[in-house]
Amino acid sequence: MANKIKIAGLVLFIIGAILIILSHFLGWNNINAVNFGSVTLMIVGLITYIAAYKKVIEEK
Q: Is 30:5 a contact under the CB 8 Å cutoff?
């Protein structure tokens, strides 16, 4: 189960990064909700990934 959560964290991080890249190319740089949302997705994804990785290590 922790492996699935780890993958979900990685997916959240990647979606946030893609959203930042798209906002740059589509000219959404001045929309704060997009910027804060994508950064929040990346932070939540990173924290989820790290927490799930620690749980996987503890299970072994």
A: no
